[in-house]
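Researcher: Let's try something more involved. This one mixes different molecule types, so please make sure each is placed in the same coordinate frame as the others.
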Amino acid sequence: MTTPPYHHGNLRAALVETAAELARTSGPDGVVLREVARRTGVSHNAAYRHFADRDELLGEVADLGMDHLERAMRARLATVRTRDPEVRARRRLRETGRAYVQFALAEPGLFEVAFAQEWPTDETGAPDFSHQESGPYALLNQVLDELVAAGGLPPALRPGADVACWAAVHGFSMLVLQGPLRHLPTDQRDAALDAMLDIVSRGLT
Amino acid sequence: MTTPPYHHGNLRAALVETAAELARTSGPDGVVLREVARRTGVSHNAAYRHFADRDELLGEVADLGMDHLERAMRARLATVRTRDPEVRARRRLRETGRAYVQFALAEPGLFEVAFAQEWPTDETGAPDFSHQESGPYALLNQVLDELVAAGGLPPALRPGADVACWAAVHGFSMLVLQGPLRHLPTDQRDAALDAMLDIVSRGLT
DNA sequence: ACCTGGATGTGGCCACTGTCAACATCTCGG
DNA sequence: CCGAGATGTTGACAGTGGCCACATCCAGGT
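Model: All components are placed in one shared frame. Result:
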């Protein structure tokens, strides 16, 4: 007859994990504080000892999602084994985009939570990840720089290329996840993605 | 001393309008059934005589938003006065994209509501606006067809061009509205949009 | 060995929401 | 003119996020 301990031991981490599970299956709106507490076997108020409010918990889930996204991108990047620098860089760029979309489609809930979070800003209020060394955006910039260095992308087109790439893959993900392409059959969806990546790639030449 | 009439007269339309106002200022989550009723000066349950549930009301607002978007796009398209067919088509394509982003930024709430709605699907479940004559998507396809006809876009690149264009402008809008580019100063934002439109345009050549 | 203060978890409460069911009121066609 | 159907109201319910006061536990100092 072991009575459950009054203190959980590592409630904070447990809550984040449960919240992430809910986010995975039901998106941001599925992360209901009381349900998280229920599933973690704790009272509906315990979470407030570890998070200021629901948003702070969601923030943790968002960080977790960003980590997963970055790992997925890095994993796919590592599969490119081409020698020729320019071809290699171009393939790596493509894999970056493909990994982004693939993650969004595989983990729509986490993706949505991760994206809906606040983003770091510098003192002027402008986005401040330009000098970040990690994170999906930094990774994209890195790959784009590789492409410039390899001679595959005219330096004049380099500024703006990051936003263009990001917008394309992000928009595609949204169109498929929540938008008009929601019910597009898988093969057509993949074809559309390839076509889009082709167009963007052609535009960066 | 005129006592207010028991019946409103045109409650349905009035509710949609109030809901649209709320959507404009507070996005989809701001469209709270009870608040809509309150502002319309009616009891919190009156809406149920006209809409099955909150989603149906939101659907009306979404249609309204789509109309506005399409009108904005058409208005901008009409400003292109160039004669040369190819240049004209290319400019019209650009204005299409610019109008989309501009509407999203000017009316973020309506935009979000409009986009989050269900979309028509055909019997197979695939999106069914391919043969639509109106709506933003039909307009985009029309402009792309113009570009092909004018010789500005190789027919081989025509399939997929629609999704690519849409994804780019939609993604850009999302990055600015809810994403990392949220606090980007206006001038930098415009520059980034121009750069992106350039890249997409180059890709469609 | 105590005991005391801070950290952690609990239960009760409030305002708010969407939705349902029962009731009230009005309007219009026979 | 009168009754049926459409429209609007009141009241209730379960569910939510958030706050407060209280209960419990653990660690560190004496």
